[in-house]
Design a protein that fits this description.
Blueprint (H helix, E strand, L loop, with lengths): L13 E3 L1 E2 L4 H13 L5 E4 L2 H5 L22 H7 L9 E5 L4 H19 L3 H7 L1 E4 L3 H8 L6 H18 L3 E2 L1 E4 L1 H5 L4 H22 L7 H6 L1 E7 L3 H21 L12 E6 L12 H11 L10 E3 L12 H16 L14 H24 L2 H6 L2 H18 L33 H16 L2 H15 L6 H9 L4 H12 L19 H17 L4 E5 L8 H12 L3 E4 L6 H11 L3 E6 L4 H14 L7 E5 L3 H9 L4 E3 L6 H15 L5
Parallel strand pairs: 1-10, 2-3, 3-4, 4-5, 5-6, 7-8, 8-9, 9-10, 11-12, 11-13, 13-14, 14-15
Helix pairs in contact: 1-3, 4-5, 4-19, 7-9, 9-11, 9-14, 11-12, 11-14, 18-19, 18-20, 21-26, 23-24
């Protein structure tokens, strides 16, 4: 997106809607429909198996296929996903991290095929490809949890992609450094800015030190680094954060890397406004939240986003429908085309109030960057658990403020009387649902794909990938060969797992606490936990489990922290567990309750597997409670299936949740509730 001079009317940003579900064919229909409505860029949501390197028929993929995005298992799926969408003229953002190299290889291969069909020079078409692969693996260890490999090999994959794209796909942003997800797991504005910059430094240092590009090309590397940020509802503070981001990035590029060209130092960022800040209670209030958050990244011309995607009002309830996504797109179009926002130079220049807030964020961020760099940089701060612990602590403090009313959320902890919402009059039809048949069809389709390909060529390409991974060769060439040979997502990732190994990131729970909460309720629950343990004859133990591939662990971590602060002994092993692993841990640890956290929509598959597993293990008397984004009809089904309690985002008072869990334990042990 070209930048006009300050004397020109600013151009509208790229307008996207984060979308994808069920299958490549259904997602393609949705993309073409959204483009016809005036959307100017695509933002692809991949399902969790694709993000974590599993095929649809893998055990861990059960219940997850097509739920939070589109499954892409091989080149054929990528062809279908972009059928009738010319990639040479598109602007595509792909939310993909651990498997980013693989998805980029599929995307480049489809672009090449499209060019050959049209009789165009595929080199020229590939050179025109515009968009971004998210590819920020550091924040995956801290927030979303879709990492696969250890930090070192993961940084190598990013480095190889940066070197490849700068040389071959010069308009592509090979990484989107994401403060977005850091805010979701509790980061303050200072932490957002600091940790994002630390990630950028780690990536740029790795590319520079790899020797894959000549020094004179390094300015082009810096110019292709992009960012993806979160805009919360405190839109003045958020706007100041973006001005601080812009100023600090320019400073780092100039002083640390010696970049003289101001265009190469430009802070390029896209944004999605805060999805996890949307509420299940009175969800119509989410409309004004989204609009205010959009202002945070559009009001200041010097720090204006060049790509924006907005969530739909009902994303706290489930998957939005096409109409809901259209409403979110129209919000952007009204702001860009009906208002006079784009006609003025920066309206905040000269404001002492704004500059003071920007300076405050900058001062804090510089200090935190220095602290992380002194530890050895972002990777070292991930491996030690430092950054994770800091953000778990920040989120615990924010939850405390909400619970005691210091931080107001309209419709949740204040002004919670309400009329029935006509927007939800259709009940379950107010959200999009994924047909369970989609997973079965995906499993059958990938099995047909494997049976129809040249198996010898596929295995040879995988062997070549393993061999290259054991050297310092750039892995893009071997990955492109795998894509063209019909290798699947799971096979590509499995080959690299063999060489690189897997990784389990620190949870940050052990070092965090919400014990600073002022209030009688926490003390009451702590006393009740102790008294119940005394009656049973041992300290109460709770297992917090994350079944399946859902890596959004902040809710589970906050439950674990609060449970420990109320006196529970907590067993929490992190993310990505099978039902068998959760059952085994529950039995071995002799827990009194199992708490499952699921936000991916796979609750109707994952939860019964744990309940049935406990019964089969002779531990059916251990009660199971569940938390997540669970529609009322699904909650009823889970309760009828033996789940003791279901908690959803409207249950924001975590101390009350702890109290209810104690009640569940007492009921299960025949004690008066």
């Amino acid at each position: 997106m070209p930048y006009p001079s300050d004397r020109e009317r600013d151009r509208p940003w790229v307008m996207r809607t984060y979308a994808g579900h069920s299958s490549a064919a259904k997602s393609n229909e949705l993309y073409r429909r959204n483009l016809a409505k005036g959307q100017t860029g695509l933002s692809v949501a991949f399902d969790l198996p694709t993000q974590t390197g599993y095929d649809p028929d893998h055990e861990l993929a059960r219940g997850e296929v097509g739920k939070v995005g589109v499954p892409v298992g091989h080149l054929g799926d990528m062809r279908t996903l972009f059928d009738a969408i010319p990639l040479g003229a598109a602007n595509t953002s792909m939310t993909i991290n651990a498997t980013a190299m693989w998805l980029l290889a599929l995307y480049v291969t489809v672009a090449k095929e499209q060019a050959e069909v049209e009789g165009a020079d595929w080199h020229e078409v590939v050179a025109r490809l515009a968009g971004t692969t998210q590819n920020d693996i550091i924040k995956e260890y801290l927030s979303r949890g879709t990492y696969v490999f250890p930090p070192g090999p993961s940084l190598r994959l990013i480095t190889d992609m940066v070197a490849f794209t700068v040389a071959n796909v010069p308009k592509w942003n090979p990484i989107n450094i994401c403060s977005y997800h850091l805010q979701e797991v509790g980061a303050t504005p200072v932490q957002e800015v600091a940790y994002s910059m630390c990630t950028a430094i780690a990536v740029l240092d790795a590319v520079r030190d790899s020797g894959q590009l000549p020094q004179e090309e390094f300015g082009n590397v810096v110019a292709r680094i992009s960012f993806f940020v979160n805009a919360g509802v405190r839109f003045i503070e958020e706007m100041c954060k973006m001005r601080a981001f812009t100023e600090l990035w320019d400073e780092i590029c100039r002083d640390r890397y010696g970049i003289d060209d101001p265009k190469q130092r430009r802070f390029r960022y896209g944004v999605q406004v805060n999805s996890l800040g949307l509420t299940e209670a009175q969800p119509e209030n989410n409309v004004q939240r989204i609009v205010l958050e959009m202002l945070a990244v559009s009001l200041s011309r010097k720090a204006r986003a060049r790509a924006i995607q907005l969530p739909a009002w009902n994303e706290a309830l489930g998957l939005p429908r096409p109409w809901d996504q259209q409403w979110a797109l129209r919000m952007q179009q009204v702001l860009a085309y009906e208002t006079d926002l784009l006609e003025y130079e920066d309206i905040f220049d000269g404001s002492a109030v704004i500059q003071a807030k920007v300076d405050e964020i900058l001062t804090g961020a510089r200090a935190e960057i220095d602290r992380v760099q002194a530890m050895g940089g972002a990777v070292a701060a991930v491996e030690s658990g430092y950054m994770k612990t800091q953000m778990v602590g920040s989120l615990a403090e924010r939850r405390r403020r909400i619970e005691v009313g210091e931080e107001v959320i309209v419709g949740v902890n204040k002004f919670d009387t309400t009329e029935p919402s006509p927007l939800q009059a259709e009940g379950a039809k107010a959200i999009e649902t994924v047909d369970p048949i989609a997973e079965r069809e995906a499993v059958e389709a990938i099995q047909r794909w494997r049976a129809s390909r040249d198996e010898s060529a596929a295995q040879d390409s995988l062997d070549a990938l393993r061999t290259a991974a054991k050297t310092d060769a750039n892995l893009m060439a071997a990955t492109l060969a795998c894509a063209q040979a019909g290798v699947t997502t799971g096979e590509w990732a499995a080959a690299l797992r063999e060489v690189f190994g897997e990784y389990r990131a620190p949870t940050g729970v052990s070092g965090a606490s919400a014990a600073g909460e002022a209030g009688v309720e926490l003390a009451k629950v702590r006393e009740w936990v102790k008294a119940t343990g005394d009656e049973i004859g041992e300290r109460l133990r709770m297992l917090v489990g994350k079944p399946g591939l859902d890596g959004h662990s902040n809710g589970a971590e906050q439950i674990a922290v609060r449970a420990r602060d109320t006196g529970f002994e907590v067993v929490y092993q992190g993310i990505r567990l099978t039902a068998d692993q959760i059952v085994s841990a529950a039995v071995q640890e002799g827990v009194h309750v199992v708490g499952l956290s699921i936000l991916s929509g796979s609750h109707l598959e994952a939860v019964p597997a744990v309940v049935e597993g406990l019964r089969a293990a002779g531990a059916g008397d251990i009660p199971v409670v569940v938390g997540g984004i669970i529609p009322p009809d699904d909650a009823k089904t889970l309760l009828e299936g033996g789940v003791a309690r279901v908690f959803t985002p409207k249950d924001y008072e975590m101390t009350q949740i702890m109290s209810e869990i104690v009640r569940v334990i007492r009921e299960a042990n025949g004690l008066p509730a």
